[in-house]
Amino acid sequence: MKRIIALPGDTWEERDGVVHVNGRMLREPYVAEWGRDGETNARRVIPDGQYFVQGDNRVNSCDSRVFGLVPRENLIGPVFAIYRPPGRIHASP
């Protein structure tokens, strides 16, 4: 499961593990401090029909930084439940 971080037309970059979208730091309370990887990646513009996705555990996430952008037709839908780890089981809003 990945989060959509940047939409078509947005600019995305990462500075020391902190994501910036359209030049503004993205507030990401769902990424634990131990889950940030400290990477720096150059700014890129997201083209039409493409989406930039990232996982919450950036240290171990294979995401758009690795496999590239995701076309719209490959997006499935919103998360409706979380079942791992067991202590966090709940329905998503």
CATH second-level architecture: Ribbon
Give the radius of gyration.
14 Å
Q: Segments where pLDDT lies below 50 for 5+ residues?
A: none
CATH superfamily: Umud Fragment, subunit A
Largest sheet: 4 strands, antiparallel
Identify the strand order in the major beta sheet: 4-3-2-5
Portion in beta strands = 25-35%
Q: Round the mean pLDDT to the nearest integer and report it.
A: 88
Overall tally of domains: 1
How would you summarize the topology of this molecule?
Blueprint: E1 3-6, E2 11-15, E3 18-21, E4 24-25, E5 41-45, E6 50-54, H1 64-67, E7 70-71, E8 81-82, E9 90-91
Describe the structure.
- 4% of the residues lie in helices and 33% in strands.
- It has one helix at 64-67; strands at residues 3-6, 11-15, 18-21, 24-25, 41-45, 50-54, 70-71, 81-82, 90-91.
- A hairpin with a 7-residue loop joins β8 (81-82) and β9.
- It starts with a strand and ends with a strand.
- It has one domain: Ribbon (Umud Fragment, subunit A).
- 11% of the residues are buried.
- A four-stranded antiparallel beta sheet has the order 4-3-2-5, with no helix packed on it. A three-stranded antiparallel beta sheet has the order 1-6-7, with no helix packed on it. The chain has a two-stranded antiparallel ribbon with strand order 8-9.
- With 93 residues, the protein is mostly beta strands.
